[in-house]
Amino acid sequence: MKITVVGTGYVGLVTGTCFADVGIDVTCVDIDKEKIKNLKKGIIPIYEPGLEEMVQRNIEKGRLHFSTQLKDTLEDTEVIFSAVGTPPDEDGSADLQYVLNVAREVGQHMNNYLILVTKSTVPVGTANKVKKALQEELDKRDVNIDFDVASNPEFLKEGAAVQDFLKPDRIVIGTESDKAKEIMEKLYKPFTLNGHPVIFMDIPSAEVTKYAANAMLATKISFMNDIANFCEIVNADVNSVRKGIGSDSRIGNKFIYPGTGYGGSCFPKDVKAIIRTANENNYNLRVLQSVEDVNEDQKTILFRKLMDHYNGDIKGKKIAMWGLSFKPKTDDMREAPALNLIDKITEAGATIKAYDPVAMDEAKRRVGDKIEYAKDQYDALLDADALLLVTEWMDFRYPNFNAIKRLMKEPPILDGRNIYDRLEMKKYGFYYTGIGIANEK
Ligand SMILES: NC(=O)c1ccc[n+]([C@@H]2O[C@H](COP(=O)([O-])OP(=O)(O)OC[C@H]3O[C@@H](n4cnc5c(N)ncnc54)[C@H](O)[C@@H]3O)[C@@H](O)[C@H]2O)c1
């Protein structure tokens, strides 16, 4: 079987490589020439555990190819996965220009039956637009070629993307054609042998499922952040509350960790986009509006705590920042809370020296010399007036607290992920504050 994957970002590259790994002939296409040049040499543009070795292995086996020309890949291709970006437009809606460009390009060049599968996260109704765009191109060519569209939203998590793709909780496929259903079922068979279900449904339901899943996860996070802030006011410890509620199987213990707000390339844009789509349909998703509001506040909670600690004036202070990526095990800084903190802290006149195990280059690209970059996590602490723990990388979990104390000028630790123990911090003599834990008076 031969397939094409368009877009070699987190989703496209993982999708293409995992399909190649089970023996399918895959060509991954991207308009970014530099990316494709590197990928042909087995160099991947992102940090994703396990992916680079897998890419190299499949290139060597001759099953994984890369190209900048979608049209060259279309002959005999049965399925095209479109995994291009759908960034937010100014009004919060998903920008569909890349998705529709792919549909048009396919229509301009296809010569045999194929299924155009949208893997990107797209608003309900997009499959119809994709179908129309493709058909218009066929009409312009005055040819009559059969094709199907399908919606196959992706649920992988950055940082665990390969494993999530190989062993998915479920695969959702929206299609209206039996032929497409049969081909997609066959294609995904290697990933479903362990009983992971393929859930077939109509296309609009598949499109909504992706947004509903992300919106639900974002809701859990904002709910817990709201409860955490309340806990602080009433002298309760959110860590205890979390364990207390998480043990209820109806609630579950995943995704109920308070922190500095959700970020990344998906939750913020997807929550905004579904609110927007609902508005266009004269419906107000009130819960999600609040989820957004809580998250916007939460992204600056460490800044507010820092200001409180220094009585509203941090001018001239040196701030150490541990963690820049929006979550551990990725270099992705899209909508990372670290970016809001960097803006707020530097605007207030303090300087930042930061360290992240993998996102340093990405940070340089995004914020340049707005901050200083440390050689390692301890280098960031030299003469610092505060340590902000922003991303809970494993490297930060058991640091040498004696060294931290020795290196820093002042000892406040502001733990944005509640990874340290308050009593232990007290023993070391740090001023410690987390999220949803009453502060030392
Ligand atoms: N990143 C995630 O964790 C994740 C998870 C699930 C779903 N999604 C969704 O998947 C989609 C892709 O996300 P991503 O993070 O992989 O994006 P990305 O921005 O990392 O990658 C998109 C790629 O598409 C390429 N591209 C754009 N137009 C093209 C065209 N016409 N032809 C060929 N290539 C083109 C870009 O050059 C880029 O390399 C988005 O809709 C996103 O919401 C992302």
List the helices and strands and how they pair.
Layout: E1 2-6, H1 10-21, E2 25-29, H2 33-40, H3 51-60, E3 64-67, E4 79-82, H4 97-109, E5 114-118, H5 126-141, E6 147-151, H6 161-166, E7 171-175, H7 178-188, E8 198-201, H8 203-233, H9 238-246, H10 267-280, H11 286-298, H12 301-309, E9 318-322, H13 337-347, E10 351-355, H14 360-367, E11 372-373, E12 386-389, H15 401-407, E13 412-415, H16 422-428, E14 431-433
Parallel strand pairs: 1-2, 1-4, 2-3, 4-5, 5-6, 7-8, 9-10, 9-12, 10-11, 12-13, 13-14
Antiparallel strand pairs: 6-7
This protein binds nicotinamide-adenine-dinucleotide.
The fraction of residues assigned to DSSP E strands is 5-15%
- Largest beta sheet, briefly? 8 strands, mixed
**Overall CATH class of the largest domain:** Alpha Beta
Numbering strands along the chain, what is their spatial order in the largest sheet?
Answer: 3-2-1-4-5-6-7-8
Explain this structure.
By secondary structure, this protein is an alpha/beta fold. It folds into three domains: 200 residues, Rossmann fold, CATH 3.40.50.720; 86 residues, N-(1-d-carboxylethyl)-l-norvaline Dehydrogenase, domain 2 (Orthogonal Bundle); 135 residues, Rossmann fold (3-Layer(aba) Sandwich), CATH 3.40.50. Helices cover 42% and strands 14% of the residues. It contains 16 helices and 14 strands. It has an eight-stranded mixed sheet, with helices on both faces. It has a six-stranded parallel sheet with strand order 11-10-9-12-13-14, with helices on both faces. Helix 13 links the parallel strand 9 and strand 10. The longest helix has 31 residues. The model has no long low-confidence stretch (mean pLDDT 96). The structure holds nicotinamide-adenine-dinucleotide. The site of nicotinamide-adenine-dinucleotide has 26 residues, from helix 1 and helix 4.
